[in-house]
């Protein structure tokens, strides 16, 4: 068979034009977006990525009943089983590669590889289930990965003053805490810009 003649017209021969890295990019930074199950990590990556995001969502089945804690997210029908991936250009020279981690505890063994080489992290939290953030923050602190806290805006979630959240999460005074709406590109971008400024301030403080 002559494979050359059987090639279809829609054969993909390379990356889409919109996925090509800008030629002006001089530096790339890896950022991880972490949090418990159902806090909005996949939503944030999808809302802010300038390329079509890669997702590894699978339909939730009865096999997860009694294993996965989906309290507060009972209507959720799919879950990330490996990672989410996206990209955003902060400036003409700086590009962020975004890696969203799986939220279910049984997939946390994948976090080790996702954290490798990460310059910083965004911890998404849901104030209805604040306790699921404790282990997430502990893992980042153990690895020495700087992070900011983004409080995702769920309609029925209680709202607390920043200092109340800081005490509840046992955070130092320097860790930024901000509200966000992971569905909105502008809001998600603001969170990433806050992380970049925080990382810069830590670098300056070390000099």
Question: Could you please describe the fold and organization of this structure?
Answer:
The protein is an alpha/beta fold. The chain is 26% helix and 21% strand. It is built from five helices and eight strands, in the order E-H-E-E-E-E-H-E-H-E-H-E-H. It has a six-stranded mixed sheet, sandwiched between helices. Helix 4 (162-168) links the parallel strand 7 (147-152) and strand 8. The longest helix has 22 residues, at 185-206. The chain is globular, with a radius of gyration of 19 Å. The model is unreliable at 63-68 (pLDDT under 50).
Which blocks of ≥5 consecutive residues have pLDDT under 50? 63-68
Q: Give the strand content.
A: 15-25%
Radius of gyration: 19 Å
What sequence of helices (H) and strands (E) makes up the elements? EHEEEEHEHEHEH
Please state the structural category: alpha/beta
How would you write the strand order of the largest sheet? 4-5-1-6-7-8
Report the span from N to C terminus: 65 Å
Instruction: Say how many strands there are.
Output: 8
Overall geometric form: globular
Discrete helix count: 5
Biggest sheet architecture: 6 strands, mixed
Mean pLDDT: 80
Amount of helix: 25-40%
């Amino acid at each position: 068979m002559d494979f050359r003649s059987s090639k279809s017209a829609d054969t993909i021969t390379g990356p889409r034009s919109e996925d090509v890295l800008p030629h002006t990019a001089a530096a790339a930074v890896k950022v991880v977006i972490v949090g418990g199950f159902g806090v909005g990590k996949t939503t944030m990556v999808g809302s802010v990525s300038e390329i079509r995001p890669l997702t590894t969502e699978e339909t939730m089945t009865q096999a997860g009943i009694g294993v996965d804690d989906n309290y507060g997210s009972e209507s959720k029908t799919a879950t990330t089983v490996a990672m989410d991936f996206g990209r955003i250009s902060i400036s003409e020279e700086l590009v962020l590669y975004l890696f969203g981690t799986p939220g279910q505890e049984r997939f946390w063994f994948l976090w080790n590889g996702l954290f490798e080489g990460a310059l910083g992290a965004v911890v998404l939290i849901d104030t209805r289930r604040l306790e699921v953030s404790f282990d997430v923050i502990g893992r980042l602190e153990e690895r020495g990965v700087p992070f900011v806290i983004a409080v995702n805006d769920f309609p029925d979630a209680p709202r607390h003053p920043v200092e109340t959240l800081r005490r509840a999460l046992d955070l130092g005074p320097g860790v930024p805490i901000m509200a966000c709406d992971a569905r909105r590109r502008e809001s998600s971008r603001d969170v990433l810009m806050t992380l970049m400024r925080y990382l810069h301030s830590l670098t300056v403080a070390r000099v």
